[in-house]
Description:
Layout: H1 2-10, H2 18-37, H3 43-67, H4 73-105
Helix pairs in contact: 1-2, 2-3, 2-4, 3-4
Amino acid sequence: xxxxGAVLALVDSGSPLRGPFTLFFLLAMxxxxxxxxxxxxxPFGRTVAAVAGAVVVDMxxxxxxxAVHRWSVLGGIVAVTAISVLILLLVVVRRLRGRTSRRRxx
Length: 106
């Protein structure tokens, strides 16, 4: 559903589902990335922290775009996606690095 919202916004569709699906994407994508990074917390705490982090990411992207006078819907979606993918890549690298160091010490 989130991916569909991003696609609808990127192709500038006139669908009435564009708004809710895009909002879901803008909250779910960073929340999922942050939740993956907070693997050690209990489920409720991880959910609360991930949703709060997603709101922070969205607000920082919006504030940064407004500060440099480059506001656009497409730019915001691309920026939030890039930040979320970067967080996910950092989590994957950290996990892979942890596995290799454990194998070397065994």
